[in-house]
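Here is one chain, start to finish.
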Amino acid sequence: MFCKKCGKLMSYEEGRLICSCGYSEEGELIIKDRKRSVDKKIGVVKEENDIHPVVDKTCIKCKNDKAYTWALQTRSADEPETIFYKCVKCKHSWRE
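Its structure:
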């Protein structure tokens, strides 16, 4: 928790949250275990209401010439981002 007076990170001692600036308050320390979940379906548009630009790109499934596009960083920062496409007509998604 952060100090309401100065914004620094507060420490916990004997039922109180204490800041180095002198501010303190009663509080409870709650530690939550966070587990990372990896979405294996990266690049699939989950909501049809998402707004993406339309580009001239031929669909590999139905041969339509218009597709939505977006980019995501799917690998480490020193690798180029992955470009995704979704056909306007048949909704097939692919990446390059």
